[in-house]
């Protein structure tokens, strides 16, 4: 298993990547960035093996490591659990670490020949914050709470607050819980002065974005709180007569009841055509989309982390975000904080930024400084530190 490199052991990690191909999902992006870091900056520390069902793990980064495809049983139901159960009992290969990058744990995962088991939970449900969850989500949670947690050596969340909440929700021991901050999606940056007008022209013509605009990047799921941001935008239209467009990036999800709630909020706007759910934006244009916004709003009721907020910090745009959950931890003093359960307070924060150019400039400067704290290289290094910590324990 472990290979000696000088005075340090190379850790053999089995990384479960069955869901890495999911589009527009933060957990899939997390897997991809960790693999990229392990295969480049930490290739002397990690012997990486990707484990997934046949036909999965087809994104380009999967070619960076050796793979073990799991034979898939073609059944009307229970294909995933049946395939993994067989693998758990028949896999002969040994590992130092088996890392599940999301808490999708099937029974008997501990039958794998690994010294330690690491699970990235990202976060856990928070009291008072609505979440869209399927019956399958509840089954995985119950399994972890009542059985699986006794076989987990390290549980990782995306920050200090999420780690505390995760430990409380699942009943984990203090020494099991670790908080590791993630980073942004695209290494964005502020535009140079000569880039601004061409970028504006491109956003108008290519994507139909009107200026000035307020930006929100979020899927339409309850805890992202998009409907209250839309309601706050309507209050600003009515009371402040703002000329802005509200641009929402992220698209619909798998919560049709919440999609309908957002659509009702949009229909109730004084100027409905000023709310724009944008099409897919190409990566090369994302710096412009963030940087040219008058502000970025992300007022979720809860979350494990917010990659879009880090993107906003990097891009040089003033931010309005929630005063609860992980959000204050992410932004520090680089944003206006609001009560996410109050559309009126969200509107207050947005109006504060619209009316105070000096405040916007101060927050942008603080945000660019704060953004330097986040990197995927740092996240990978700390994750490897967790591996070494649990491997050193005799629990």
From TrEMBL:
Gene3D superfamilies: Glycogen Phosphorylase B. It holds the Pfam family Glycos_transf_1. GO terms for molecular function: glycosyltransferase activity. This is Glycosyl transferase family 1 domain-containing protein. Keywords: Transferase. It comes from the Bacteria. One of its GO terms (biological process) is lipopolysaccharide biosynthetic process.
């Amino acid at each position: 298993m472990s290979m000696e490199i000088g005075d340090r052991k190379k850790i053999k990690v089995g990384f479960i990547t069955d869901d890495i191909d999911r589009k527009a999902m933060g957990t899939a992006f997390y897997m991809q960035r960790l693999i990229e870091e392990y295969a480049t900056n930490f290739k002397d520390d990690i012997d990486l093996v990707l484990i997934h069902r046949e036909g999965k793990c087809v994104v380009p980064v999967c070619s960076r490591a050796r793979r073990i495809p799991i034979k898939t049983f073609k059944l009307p139901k229970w294909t995933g659990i049946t395939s993994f159960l067989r693998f758990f009992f028949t896999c002969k290969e040994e590992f130092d670490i088996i890392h599940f990058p999301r808490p999708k744990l099937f029974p008997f995962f501990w039958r794998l020949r690994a010294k330690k088991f690491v699970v990235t939970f990202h976060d856990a449900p928070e009291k008072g914050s609505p979440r869209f969850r399927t019956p399958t989500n509840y089954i995985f949670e119950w399994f972890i709470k009542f059985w699986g947690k006794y076989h987990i050596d390290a549980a990782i969340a995306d920050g200090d607050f999420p780690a505390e909440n995760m430990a409380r929700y699942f009943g984990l021991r203090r020494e099991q819980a670790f908080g590791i901050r993630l980073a942004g999606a695209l290494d964005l940056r502020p535009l140079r002065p000569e880039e601004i007008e061409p970028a504006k022209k491109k956003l108008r013509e290519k994507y139909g974005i009107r200026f000035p605009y307020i930006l929100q990047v979020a899927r339409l799921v309850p805890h992202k709180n998009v409907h209250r941001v839309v309601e706050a935008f309507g209050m600003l239209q009515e009371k402040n007569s703002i000329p802005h467009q509200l641009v929402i990036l992220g698209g619909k999800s798998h919560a049709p009841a919440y999609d309908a709630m957002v659509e009702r909020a949009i229909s109730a706007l004084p100027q409905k055509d000023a709310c724009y759910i944008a099409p897919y934006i190409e990566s090369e244009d994302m710096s412009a989309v963030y940087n040219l916004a008058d502000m970025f709003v992300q007022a979720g009721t809860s979350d494990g982390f917010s990659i879009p907020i880090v993107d906003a910090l990097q891009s040089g745009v003033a931010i309005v975000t929630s005063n609860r959950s992980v959000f204050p931890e992410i932004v520090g003093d680089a944003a206006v904080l609001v009560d996410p359960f109050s559309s009126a307070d969200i509107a207050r924060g947005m109006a504060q930024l619209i009316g105070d150019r000096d405040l916007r400039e101060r927050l942008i400067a603080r945000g660019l400084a704060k953004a330097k704290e986040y990197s995927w290289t740092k996240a990978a290094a700390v994750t490897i530190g967790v591996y070494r910590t649990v491997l050193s324990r005799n629990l």
